[in-house]
Write a structure and sequence with these properties.
Helices cover 30% and strands 28% of the residues. It is of the alpha+beta class. A hairpin with a 6-residue loop joins strand 25 and strand 26. The termini are far apart. Belongs to the glycosyl hydrolase 57 family.
């Protein structure tokens, strides 16, 4: 039989599945995704021995698998031993490498390499780069850590002028170092696998095959999309777990193995030379650069991108670049807070020796990327993960400080540019608690770490505008106009690609969009009009009578053997209804941090410096995160001597004559007893954001607001005082 040139053509396909669960994610989520994605994929590979690919498991996922399903790791090891699976390395806890200190970059990579070698008997030559966030200096640290290759998006390469036809292989890059081999994952394959019928991918690869047979087309993407993303489990695995999209695709790969070679990326890199040399600018996948832009610009970028895609203007799209990943540190003060805290703790850990005994593992866990950005697939709005990052930061800090300060009570304070914005913040640290104060923004308290429970009480997110809010508004308006339901599944019956499909978890979500005027810190001071309803306050539909909230305060600190005293002072004014001129008012806010106690005392003194009577309502707020979303039975709010309609931490209500109350979480083993020297009206409400994820738009609890209100009537020269004591203890 004569062989035609067409039959002699061949091509390689390199598949890399990235499997990850965030540090601090719920154990039931690990288990659910294991059952929906991780286990079925290994079972499918066992059924299809002719399919070879690369797998990446992050350290946080391997830790859970080792404890919950050690037999799973043994099954993967058998696939590795028979050369069917190549295990890929990376940063152990999946950090954004450019954002962490250089020595931690290398430590994170080497630690996962050692873990892979221990579990699977092989040393990885390549790595998965978290969120494909690339900066040109990375080759230095990757090669130092023993990495020979990694995978980026095709848009990284297209930004420098390369085209699809130039990407059927890998390129060499360097930074005054040994070379690093870089592959480009195909966006078209990421968007068609598994969203389009399997034969379409085979047909595409058939057209790209050559007689030389040295091309490789790469598809690297999340393993979770095979079963855990919305509607993908029955689609990918079928009713019997073995007849869905994945088995159909694997069967086609095996049936066409005479010309279509499934080749692990590390193997290909050792057998073929580079296509050439390349130098890649700072970048990530195009959606990440979209999300890093300010919200209005991000929306405009998205609309322009979709328009160009519909017009098939790939010649323009390849030069589309959004924002810089580090801009997330600008967009979200909470991300910057977390990042700068991590850098501060890094310095403390290494000053104490940089070993396990002084909190190194906790530091590395706190570098996990999942809450250092925000977009479609998670980010800073995940309150439980955000809390876990702080938990590990405080644990690392505790370990380092035991070496630096010993076991006896200690305290110190400093004014420092913690936020790296040329302004001075005040940081108070002790064996019991840390307080981070911002004199320039209302003399507010923006971090409060209770070190016994290793919990940041103020890890609350501000409700701010997101680019996808405009998408949601438009969608909800159209839905109400046409009385339609969510477009969850396309007419073909295939699951919708989360990049282009709109889902909502409840109707009229746009009615819950609320934007805050200032960061949701604590001890933010307000003067409010009489009769203002709680609903208006919670929805930020009110006017400030004074100019104190988020405005500069003067700060003075003293320290003695009893503790540290901070006096925050502002001379402002209060508007009077119907009056031409406001009244001058002095507000003194004194914070006393006693030595050796989990306790805080806040004293307010308000003095009417004007000639007329002052009538207003003074209010100060605490914004607390105690993981109380969804009516969590472990989290609570109680008022001594009164029965609330609900004791749930995330409940809403107005309570009068409050002198003593408790908030806490039994799982965190943290109770906070708040005592007021003068009875107040208590407002409380859940701070909910409307966020997007692969599962759809939903309301998510970010913390709860507790605002204390007192009516003020002060004659000229008269002062008013109140004391708030917050006493922490282990919950019962």
């Amino acid at each position: 039989m004569t062989t035609t040139p067409e039959q002699q053509k061949s091509i390689h396909i390199g598949l890399l599945l990235h499997n990850h669960q965030p540090v601090g994610n719920f154990p039931w989520v690990f288990q659910q995704v294991f059952e929906e994605s991780y286990l079925p994929m290994i079972e499918a590979l066992e059924r299809h021995p002719g399919v070879r690919l690369s797998l990446h498991y992050t350290g946080s996922l391997l830790d859970w698998l080792e404890e919950a399903h050690p037999e799973f790791l043994r099954r993967v090891a058998r696939l590795v031993a028979r050369k069917q699976v190549e295990i890929v390395g990376g940063g152990y806890y999946e950090p954004i490498l450019p954002s962490i200190p250089d020595n931690d970059k290398v430590t994170q990579i080497r630690r996962l390499t050692e873990r892979v070698e221990a579990n699977f008997g092989t040393r990885p030559t390549g790595m998965w780069l978290a969120e494909r966030v690339w900066e040109p200096s990375l080759p230095r640290y990757l090669t130092e850590a023993g990495i020979q290759w990694t995978i980026l998006d095709d848009i990284h390469f297209k930004n420098v002028g390369l085209e699809d036809k130039d990407l059927y292989g890998y390129y060499a890059t360097e930074d005054q170092t040994d070379i690093l081999k870089v592959y480009a994952t195909s966006q078209s394959l990421r968007y068609t696998i598994p969203w389009r019928p399997p034969h379409e991918t085979i047909d595409t690869l058939k057209k790209l095959a050559t007689t030389a047979g040295n091309r490789i087309v790469v598809m690297g993407d999340d393993g979770e999309k095979f079963g855990s993303w919305p509607e993908t489990r029955p689609y990918c695995w079928g009713p019997d777990g073995r007849s869905g999209w994945v088995d159909q695709f694997f069967t086609l790969l095996e049936e066409n193995s005479d010309w279509l070679h499934t080749t692990p990326l590390g193997e290909y890199a050792t057998q073929h030379p580079a296509l050439g040399r390349v130098y890649i600018p700072t970048s990530s996948y195009i959606e990440m650069t979209e999300w890093a832009l300010p919200p209005q610009r991000s929306y405009q970028f998205s609309q322009l991108l979709h328009q160009l895609e519909s017009e098939h203007r790939n010649d323009i799209i390849q030069f589309m670049r959004g924002g810089f990943w580090r801009s997330f540190l600008v967009r979200y003060p909470e991300i910057n807070n977390q990042h700068k805290k991590m850098l501060r703790v890094h310095d403390a850990v290494y000053a104490a020796g940089g070993s396990e005994e002084v909190g190194l593992t906790h530091l590395l866990k706190a570098q996990a990327n999942d809450t250092y950005w925000h977009g479609l697939f998670g980010g800073i709005y995940m309150a439980h993960v955000r809390s876990a990052i702080y938990h590990h930061l405080i644990k690392a800090e505790n370990a380092a400080d035991r070496i630096r300060h010993g076991a006896d009570p200690w305290q110190h304070y400093e004014f420092t540019d913690f936020e790296r914005n040329t302004l001075q913040q005040l940081i108070i640290e002790s064996d019991q608690q840390n307080l981070y104060l911002d004199p320039q923004h209302g003399g507010s308290l923006f971090e409060w770490d209770l070190r016994r429970s290793a919990h940041n009480m103020l890890g609350v997110m501000t409700r701010q505008e997101e680019s996808y809010h405009q998408t949601l508004r438009t969608y909800e308006q159209e839905r109400r106009r046409h009385a339609t339901t969510d477009q969850q599944i396309a007419a073909s019956g295939d699951p919708g690609n989360p990049h282009s499909t709109i889902r909502t978890k409840e109707a009229d979500l746009d009615q819950h969009l609320v934007l805050d005027r200032y960061r949701r810190s604590s001890l933010v001071d307000h003067f409010l009009s009489a009769g203002l309803p709680l609903s208006s306050y919670a929805q930020v539909r009110y006017a400030e009578q004074g100019n104190f909230a988020n405005e500069p305060y003067q700060a003075h600190v003293t320290q003695d053997e009893t503790g540290i005293t901070v006096v925050l002072n502002r001379e402002g004014v209060i508007k009077r209804p119907g009056a031409l001129s406001p009244l001058p008012v002095t507000l003194n806010k004194t914070i006393f941090v006693p030595r050796g106690e989990e306790k805080l005392v806040i004293r307010y003194q308000i003095t009417n410096q004007g000639q007329a009577r002052l009538q207003s309502t003074f209010a100060t707020e605490l914004n607390i995160n105690l993981l109380g979303g969804g009516g969590n039975p472990q989290a609570y709010c109680t008022v001594d001597g009164q029965q609330l309609d609900s004791h749930s931490f995330d409940s809403t209500g107005e309570t009068f004559n409050v002198s003593s109350m408790h908030i806490g979480n039994n799982w965190l083993q943290q109770d906070l007893h708040i005592v007021l020297s003068q009875p107040a009206t208590l407002w409380r409400f859940s701070i909910d954001t409307v966020t997007g994820s692969e599962a759809g738009f939903e309301r998510t609890h970010q913390g709860s607001n507790f605002t204390f209100l007192w009516p003020l009537t002060l004659d000229s020269g008269e002062s008013w005082n109140v004391e708030i004591t917050a006493l922490g203890r282990q919950s019962q």
